[in-house]
Amino acid sequence: MFVGRQRELEKLGEMYESGRFECAIIYGRRRVGKTTLINEFVKDKKVIYFTGIESSAGVNLENLSRCIMEAQFGPKMDAVFTDFQTALDYLHEISADERIIMVIDEFPYLAASYRAISSLLQVQIDTKYKSGKLMLILCGSSMSFMENQVLGYKSPLYGRRTAQFKILPFNFSETLAYFRRFDKYDTALMYGVTGGVPQYLEFIDDSLSAETNIKRCFLDPNAFLYEEPTNLLKQEVRDPAYYNAIIRAIAKGASRNSEIASKTDMETGACANYLKNLTDLGIVRRETPMTERSARKAVYRISDGMFRFWYRFVPDNTALIARGMTDVLWKRIAPQLPGFMGGVFEDICKQWLWEENAAGRLPVLFTDAGRWWGGDPIKKQETEIDILAVSDDEPALFAECKWTGEKVDADTAETLVYRGGLFNCTRRHFYIFSKAGFTQRCVRYAAARGVNLISFDSMFAQSTA
């Protein structure tokens, strides 16, 4: 079952129907579904699909030749071109008057084996391909390579693309569409532990409980996801031990560069470089308070949901997992899940606000939204707001998100209204999101002060229809 990616498919379809040369760059972290998207798009179309591998230029040329020849003449044709120039020239010949899609998946591997490939493609595009009907798709999982060596202005391919697609994990709405038998609460938990990464969602069985799925996927030493974070790091970075130490430090509460460096016995400069690489990979994100961009206030958080869950619950419990003490471990983990889901729920609420914003169903059109933290000049203490959205460069919408088993009481609404009053702005709109609903006292206070109360049950209604 193919779910999501409708905007990407529509845009790719428009490019295909144009009939002229097109070059689409598709990139994103591993497991996010790039190849699945491409396969869905090329169905029923004439396509040459080549995947680069970590090998020599000769082996990649042989594989490319086979892909081209088999697409043209059938599986028994195995002639090999003498060089990449000849192969790409032939590609121009067969696509001069016929719409053909040429997919080069794992393009960074091909480029590593034959460094001139980007320059060669640039010349082909400029002198030949633009006059034909070729649709070229370059796809890669190395985020830094694709952004710098393909999309970057120093790349030979700079300016040759006609569209680019950064493929992200599913959002909560797409995850709801993926699972048919979970209720919304179990779907939220599965979204939290997988981060919405499509390949991880494939391991989840929605005919089983969320508890059973977590035990099967994360707390079994033979499960795929049990070693997934360490395996991914080994694929993506050198010195994975340093990156592992940094992620563990963040998972245990360290958030500033100096604090993380101290916890991992690193120099702050070296730690900053590692953090940048983790940010480029989408595993960690760098945050500053909304309305502020001071580097002094920057903090780092684990942005990848699966990494966040794994580093919080797996490394410290490997002895129990190895001995098959899953039920004992679950009793330790279960009470901590509401705390883990707090950050996940904030992300879900932010996604809901963006959807409502796009549909024009909010009292204000905002342009950015995120967390805010800072000093309370009245109480002389640090405070924070889960979601602060800005409109016309000033704060306009303030939100609190509560993923607990208890109904939200009026004191939460009072605190949110008070914190909104710390800002000098012309409009203030207040929202409180709750998993368990609201007390009558909260409902009365909200009605009197104009606070919008949103229960989780009422969110994303269209997605569950």
Q: Could you state the oligomeric state of the chains shown?
A: single chain
CATH topology of the largest domain: Arc Repressor Mutant, subunit A
Main-sheet strand order equals: 2-3-4-1-5
CATH class (first level) name of the largest domain: Mainly Alpha
Overall shape: globular
How many strands in all? 12
Tell me the Rg in angstroms.
25 Å
CATH architecture descriptor text of the largest domain: Orthogonal Bundle
The domain count comes to 3
The biggest sheet, with number of strands, parallel, antiparallel or mixed sense and barrel status, is:
5 strands, parallel
Query: Strand content of the residues, in percent?
Result: 15-25%
User: Would you tell me the overall average pLDDT?
Assistant: 94
Instruction: State the share of residues found in helices, binned by percent.
Output: 40-55%
Assign the CATH superfamily of the largest domain: Winged helix-like DNA-binding domain superfamily/Winged helix DNA-binding domain
